[in-house]
Specification:
By secondary structure, the chain is of the alpha/beta class. It has 17 helices and eight strands. The protein has helices at 3-25, 31-51, 78-107, 113-128, 139-147, 154-170, 179-190, 196-205, 207-223, 225-245, 290-302, 331-346, 358-366, 369-373, 382-398, 423-433, 436-447; strands at 249-254, 261-263, 276-281, 318-322, 350-354, 378-379, 401-403, 411-413.
Length: 450
């Protein structure tokens, strides 16, 4: 740390901020906003040329002229440079799209990322024939360009012409430009891109998004834009994976006076039926979340929801999966559903599927799950599934089945019913034999009993 460049840079920063403020508030002084960076460079250069301070670092000598055109003739270093090239490409994409989206949001226009990346790739291809550095969308230079009042891509063309002219004829003038003046120009430009209102909004809406914003902001200030962007993307992916692996699962209840079933937490007036649990999975089912889903289903079986309709049977006989939000299901989830079906079957619990989309239904059919649980237990509406299950619950209750106090759900039949199987055992036997369970379910559905 050195005091002279700090004091000089702070003075230039104050001058730039004052000129920017005057240019924004007074239309007659709008030129001050664009001329601020040039003023800082000229004043800094004059100060160095006159006083020659040794503590102030300057840009130094810049080679004059443009690089010559050349064509690569050997590719012996291709494999060794490939990992570095891939890393540079990833950082370039993140940095370029990040600043482009920031400026698009600030100025209220739509951004086409494909066009941005196409132009970026084309510029790098052309620059490779002149031994140029990889070109990216720079935060600092884009911020300076924006704060100078640039509105269209024409500013980039003019800036390119000026840079080429400066490299050809004006490099001696850049030797004594103090670096603290350039730093002040960048800081004054970037401060306008820090959206404090967005941070306050995120804090009030979602603490997780605010944490992601704060982490990316702090890392960028501490370690630089490349590390900051990578850390931000990494945490974003971690949040996405966590949300995907722990999807929202809701127990549905029937709204009074309707055949509509909604989340009982969102609609406390919705009621459920004893012995029947209706569960909705609000995400695709795949290898990352199937274990979580199975754990929640077991939890619903052991901890019975507060049901208030139908006969009091004391345990769960039916689990209805409302699958309309499920857009995809993979092979791991298919195998897990088969295992879950076998577990439920051993405990005399029937699975029913309601409203799967076409793709999910075809996959379940090809995997044999529809045949395994029975085609009659796949319904178009949740209400249809509930009515059929409710009739089975009432039938089992009429058979005078007494439930043991154990949580395992083993049945103790009354003497009157000891000479015949329980209703659900007959149901499984019929299903394994000739598929009559599906016909029985459909006949109950046609009765339209509520």
């Amino acid at each position: 740390f050195s005091w002279p460049p700090f004091v000089m840079g702070s003075a230039f920063l104050v001058i730039l901020l004052i000129m920017k403020k005057l240019g924004k508030t007074n239309k007659k002084l709008r030129f001050l906003r664009a001329s601020g960076p040039l003023t800082a460079v000229v004043l800094g250069t004059l100060f160095v040329k006159i006083f020659r301070p040794t503590a102030i670092s300057v840009v130094g000598e810049i080679p004059q002229g443009l690089p010559s055109f050349s064509i690569p003739r050997g590719f012996e270093h291709l494999m060794s440079l490939m990992p570095t090239a891939i890393l540079i490409t990833g950082v370039a994409i993140l940095e370029s799209v990040g600043i482009a989206k920031a400026l698009a949001a600030k100025n209220g226009y739509e951004l086409d990322s494909n066009k941005e990346l196409f132009g970026l790739g084309l510029s790098n291809i052309c620059g490779s024939f002149f031994s140029a550095y990889p070109a990216t969308g720079s935060f600092s230079r884009s911020a300076v360009n924006h704060e100078s009042g640039a509105k269209t891509g024409l500013s980039g063309i003019i800036m390119g012409i000026i840079i080429c002219s400066a490299l050809l004829f004006m490099t001696p003038l850049f030797t004594d430009i103090p670096q603290c003046a350039l730093a002040a120009i960048v800081i004054s430009a970037v401060t306008g891109l820090v959206d404090y209102e967005e941070a306050i909004f995120l804090w009030g809406i979602d603490k997780k998004d605010f944490f992601l914003w704060a982490m990316t902001f702090t890392t960028t200030l501490t370690f630089g834009i490349e590390i900051g962007v990578l850390v931000g993307v990494g945490f974003s992916l971690a949040f996405v994976i966590h949300e995907s692996a722990n999807p929202h699962i809701a127990v549905l209840g029937r709204l009074p006076g309707t055949t509509v079933y909604r989340n009982t937490l969102q609609y406390p007036e919705a009621y459920t039926y004893n012995g029947i649990v209706v569960v909705r999975v609000d995400a695709p089912i795949y290898f990352a979340n199937i274990s979580y889903i199975k754990d929640r289903l077991r939890e619903y079986e052991l901890k019975l929801p507060n049901s208030n309709r139908g006969p009091d049977v004391g345990r769960v006989y039916f689990v209805i999966l409302e699958m309309s939000p499920v857009t995809y299901i993979d092979s791991s989830a298919v195998q897990a559903l088969k295992d879950l079906h076998q577990e439920y079957k051993a405990r005399d619990i029937q699975i029913a599927i309601a409203n799967p989309n076409r793709q999910v239904h075809l996959l379940l059919s090809r995997a044999g799950i529809i045949d395994m649980i029975g085609a009659g237990w796949c319904f178009v509406r949740v209400h249809d599934a509930v009515q059929v299950c409710l009739q089975h619950v009432r039938s089992s209750s009429s058979n005078a089945i007494k439930l043991s106090p154990q949580a395992s759900g083993n049945l103790t039949e009354s003497p009157k019913a000891q000479q015949r199987y329980g209703f659900l055992r007959n149901l499984w036997k019929a299903q394994d034999g000739n598929g009559s369970a599906g016909d029985e379910a459909q006949s109950l559905l046609r009765q339209n009993l509520v």
